[in-house]
Design brief:
heterodimer, A: mainly alpha, ABC transporter involved in vitamin B12 uptake, BtuC, about 75% helix, B: alpha/beta, Rossmann fold, 5-stranded mixed β-sheet, 5-stranded parallel β-sheet, 13 helices, about 35% helix
Chain lengths: ~350, ~375
């Protein structure tokens, strides 16, 4: 059993590696596979090819990997915590909170007398917005016993944040609106290496946090009463799951904008392909599968239009929605997992 | 767990503290440079053949200036640590990201140096479109820059702009990959003549001869602008003017300190929102604008509307406006294309005298009896 899973994971990792290479070869300008391998082996190559690989292709492919892994693990934790197949990393209003933070920064200057000062302002605004929502939810999670009530409150808080974004948009000028719309389309480009490493660090830490909680997450699938009966501290698991999800979704949204559907779809695909509900397997599988799906989305976004890329958010939606519909139509198979 | 929460909160607050760092500015005089020219948004300093350009606001809410150092190719540049970009001139290729940039480049006769442009469909010039069709100009993106095309084309300088921190971050990423990016904040100038003076900024990248050409050009259009303004200032009657068009119940009108308001004042018109301090636009409720606009003699720039009928079909109540009743509605779409290209935003930037002449022609037709409208048309 373990060997079969191990082989499947190995195959998945090989697929991830091949797609990573394919993504490195995909972009606005042609790049030979020879140049890429010369770059990887540290051989001298044409300076323009070096700049393209080093400053465009690598950051883009790594961002796809990290975002895919982060959103998938975040989605997995939310689906388990709320025992809801349609829960995702953004279900608790974390994305709306990040969006509100960015909206305040980009469109609220006139309202609040603030201005963007530093290169990390946008990421700080998005993360700050997500963090505020997260704190409210964490505080509520101590008081509210029923997980469904918490879910509903999360959705409500998200709706309030969305309404506030609407108000800011209503009073914004065309430049501000354009900036916000561009941010909300999501993008894997333009991340410098320092931001990329920061994002990778936070994502690995939050994924590790989730992995260390695997056993408790497994017990939650049997119901909170059962989990309590075997000695799981429900408040503790809620706290770490929400914190981990907030860090994962908040960081990704801060740097790449809201990227939808990956977080909902990948955990289901992983459960179906591997026929397991064990989180110690599912978390690494989700990380690899999430990377695969986002790499595919990025490759498609470049292939569909010559010399440019379609917004990544639109591609993940176009890929993700048919999968969600398929999941809904074959509901029997999902309910077995919760 | 509550303790963990306090730690997390504290970390987050601490991470925001660097925002208190004060900004640093460079003392160019101490480096032997003398001020050569300045507007509200840029200053040029000179030391022999070397130039330093200070951009006061790289983007509207920026609190730190940017500094570009231009030195003759083949010579050594003075070493100044805080410089944002060092560029050897004359440059031989450029990419542009706004139609206004094209206006400056065209006025200097440097169109064939353009090898890349973003959103090329928005450019009005036929020469630009033919260079685009022949492959001399490559599209370099629309919502985001295409970094790879820019690297591959080996462009000397990308003239760009930033609207906020988000677009400024993208510029930083382009610079990290070795692309020389220069920010043009001409859109922040509120005086039409100062906006035209960015012509000197562009000329600097191409050497002495172009700089002289830009000075002669600016002297000529500056004189024409001031002559028209002077003639208008003696007129006793000033008509009242309404501007803009509502969208989803909000009517954005230009603020009193804006470029547009300055044109109205110089063209001898009374603008209802002239006393407001806003440099950008003011989002107002339609009712508020209608109350002010009811007795306005003229209505300028009703969006992209092509006829008064089109306006009244959409908003029957606008038929009550005096400007509509008297058929005094003017649009700046006289030189535009279905693709959205509009010469007002291209050539208009270096021909404020023509825009002013158009407005004076509309508001005070007796003053310039022989001149026809150029950027504007009656709809």
């Amino acid at each position: 059993m373990y060997t079969r899973k191990g082989i499947r994971i190995l195959l998945l990792a090989v697929l991830l590696f091949l797609l990573f290479i394919l993504d490195l070869l995909t972009g606005a300008v042609e790049l030979s596979i020879g140049s890429l391998f010369d770059y990887l082996l540290g051989e001298p190559i044409d300076q323009r090819d070096f700049l393209i690989i080093h400053y465009s292709r690598f950051p883009k492919a790594f961002t796809a990997l990290i975002c895919g892994a982060a959103l998938s693990v975040a989605g997995l934790q939310m689906q388990t915590l709320f025992r809801n197949p349609l829960a995702g990393p953004y279900i608790l209003g974390i994305s709306s909170g990040a969006g509100l933070g960015v909206a305040i920064l980009l469109m609220g200057a006139g309202f609040f007398g603030i201005s963007a000062l530093y290169s990390w302002s946008l990421a700080a605004a998005a993360f700050g917005g997500a963090f505020v929502i997260l704190l409210i939810l964490l505080l509520l999670s101590f008081r509210i016993k029923d997980v469904m009530t918490l879910l509903i409150i999360g959705i409500m808080i998200g709706a309030v944040a969305t309404a506030m974004i609407g108000i800011l948009q209503y009073f914004s000028n065309d430049f501000q609106l354009k900036s916000f719309v561009i941010w909300s389309l999501g993008s894997l480009d333009s991340l410098s290496y320092d931001k990329l490493f920061l994002m990778m660090g936070v994502v690995l830490l939050a994924c590790l946090m989730a992995f260390l909680n695997s056993k408790s997450l497994n017990s939650l699938l049997m119901g909170e009463r059962y989990a309590k009966s075997i000695g799981v501290d429900i408040n503790r698991i809620r706290f770490y799951s929400i914190l981990s999800t907030g860090l994962l979704a908040g960081t990704v949204t801060a740097y790449c904008g809201p990227i939808g559907f990956i977080g909902v779809v990948v955990p289901h695909l992983s459960r179906m392909i591997f026929q397991t509900t064990d989180h110690s397997w599912l978390i690494p599988i989700c990380m690899i599968s999430g990377g695969i799906i986002l790499l595919v989305a990025d490759i498609l976004s470049h292939w569909l239009v010559e010399q440019t890329a379609l917004p990544i958010n639109s591609i993940t939606a176009l890929l993700g929605i048919p999968i969600i519909i398929w999941i809904l139509l074959s509901k029997k198979r999902i309910s077995n997992s919760f | 767990m509550r303790k963990s929460l306090v730690i997390i909160l504290s970390c987050f607050i601490l991470s925001l503290l660097p925002a208190c760092t004060p900004q640093k500015s460079i003392d160019f005089e101490a480096e032997g440079f003398e001020k050569y020219h300045h507007t509200d948004e840029f200053s040029i300093y000179q030391k022999e053949e070397e130039y330093l350009i200070e951009i006061s606001h790289p983007f509207p809410t920026a609190t730190r200036a940017e500094y570009y150092q231009l030195f003759p190719a083949g010579q050594n540049a003075t070493s100044i640590p805080e410089i944002t970009q060092q560029i050897a001139y004359p440059i031989t290729s450029m990419a542009i990201s706004s139609t206004t940039h094209y206006g400056y480049v065209e006025a200097l006769g440097l169109v064939d140096f353009i090898i890349g442009a973003s959103s090329p469909q928005l450019f009005y010039s036929d020469r630009f479109q033919s260079n685009l069709d022949s492959g001399m100009i490559n599209p370099i993106g629309s919502t985001h820059f295409n970094k790879e095309i820019l690297i591959k084309s080996n462009v000397n300088v990308l003239f760009s702009y930033a609207l906020d921190q988000a677009s400024f971050d993208e510029i930083a990423s382009l610079r990290e990959s070795g692309i020389k990016v220069v920010l043009v904040s001409e859109f922040l100038e509120t005086d039409p003549l100062k906006k035209a003076e960015w012509l000197k900024f562009f000329a600097l990248f191409f050497g002495e001869e172009k700089l002289k050409r830009s000075e002669a050009y600016l002297t000529s259009i500056g004189k024409q602008y001031r002559d028209i303004k002077e003639a208008v200032s003696h007129l006793p009657n000033k008509p009242k003017v309404l501007m803009g068009y509502p969208w989803k119940g909000v009517w954005h009108v230009s603020g009193g300190a804006s470029y547009q308001a300055q044109f109205f004042e110089d063209a001898g018109a009374i603008y209802p929102w002239a006393e407001t301090k806003a440099v950008g636009s003011l989002p107002l409720d339609v009712e508020v604008v209608l109350v002010e606009g009811l007795d306005c003699d003229f209505w300028i720039n009703p969006g992209n509307k092509q006829s008064v009928d089109q306006i009244t079909e959409e908003h029957a109540d606008f038929a009550q406006l005096k400007a509509v009743r008297k058929q005094q509605v003017y649009s700046n779409y006289a030189r535009s294309k279905p693709s959205g290209a509009n010469d007002y935003w291209e050539r208009g930037v270096v021909r404020p005298d023509l825009i002013l002449a158009d407005l004076v022609n509309i508001f005070h037709p007796q003053l310039l009896p022989d001149s026809a409208l150029y950027f504007y048309k009656k709809i």
